[in-house]
Design goal:
The protein is α+β, with helices and mostly antiparallel strands and about 240 residues long. The protein has helices at about 5, 10-20, 20-30, 40-45, 50-60, 80-95, 105-115, 125-135, 150-170, 190-205, 220-230, and strands at about 35, 65-70, 75-80, 115-120, 120-125, 140, 150, 180, 190, 210, 215-220. About 55% of the residues lie in helices and about 15% in strands.
């Protein structure tokens, strides 16, 4: 019996975890990289707290989520970047989500997510792809050589994120750069340790701000100036 057949039950078990709209909604929400309570996720998915608890237990047991307790509060988050990549890759293969006719709020939310959002711990949406393209155009990222940060790119990263960020980047065991297929742009954006460092720096410097409690981001005026200076990226032209 081949290895692929041997692993069929495990693959089917993993697929079953996401073969439910509520559990899939939880995983998509957790792509913002933050820890959520069961109550917050229940309200998001519009299900009873007891229903949310049951679904979360399955996701934790299946290894997609991990629990985090702080005092009396229980939080859950994605088990790691590998799970985030799985969720984002699957979302990229799904057909576009239809927006209900006349739903201005849904249309605005969808448009904001498409413009800029977090994908676990890195930038995604149109913004993420534009930053990735700009890094490639300026010689900081080589997409033809296995999506690799160049020597010039490493020097640029150290200068951009500062000594503390550069030290953390050097100490990580994660891949420095990898492509992540963007589910709205259908093109790759930068993930990996470099993508995470850039996103964290952008949030810390308030180049981008979160919109409400969702993954959507808004680029600030200082962020537009920084991207223009650092990457010759003019978002106004986009």
């Amino acid at each position: 019996m081949t290895r692929s057949v041997d692993g069929a039950p495990q693959l089917a078990s993993l697929a079953s975890l996401l073969a439910d709209g509520t559990r899939a909604a939880f995983c998509l929400a957790l792509l913002d990289g933050r820890a959520w309570t069961a109550g917050e996720l229940a309200r998001l998915a519009r299900v009873a707290p007891s229903t949310a608890t049951g679904h979360l237990a399955r996701l934790v047991t299946g290894g997609l989520l991990v629990e985090q307790r702080q005092g009396r509060h229980r939080y859950v988050r994605l088990a790691g970047p590998h799970v985030a990549q799985l969720i984002e890759d699957l979302a990229a293969q799904a057909p576009p989500v239809p927006i209900p006719a006349g739903s201005l709020r849904a249309a605005a939310t969808s448009a904001a997510m498409a413009r800029a959002r977090t994908c676990y711990d890195h930038l995604a949406g149109r913004l993420g792809v534009l930053v990735t393209d700009a890094m490639t155009r300026t010689g900081l990222l080589d997409q033809d050589a296995g999506f690799a940060v160049t020597g010039a790119g490493m020097a640029w990263l150290r200068t951009t994120i500062g000594p503390a960020g550069a030290t953390a980047l050097a100490a990580t065991r994660r891949p420095l750069a990898r492509p992540c297929l963007d589910w709205t742009e259908r093109r790759p954006h930068l993930a990996g340790a470099a993508g995470a460092a850039l996103c964290r720096h952008a949030l810390d410097r308030r180049w981008v701000e979160r919109i409400g409690s969702q993954r959507a981001l808004r680029v600030t005026d200082s962020g537009r100036r920084a991207l223009r200076e650092l990457l010759d990226l003019d978002l106004a032209a986009e």
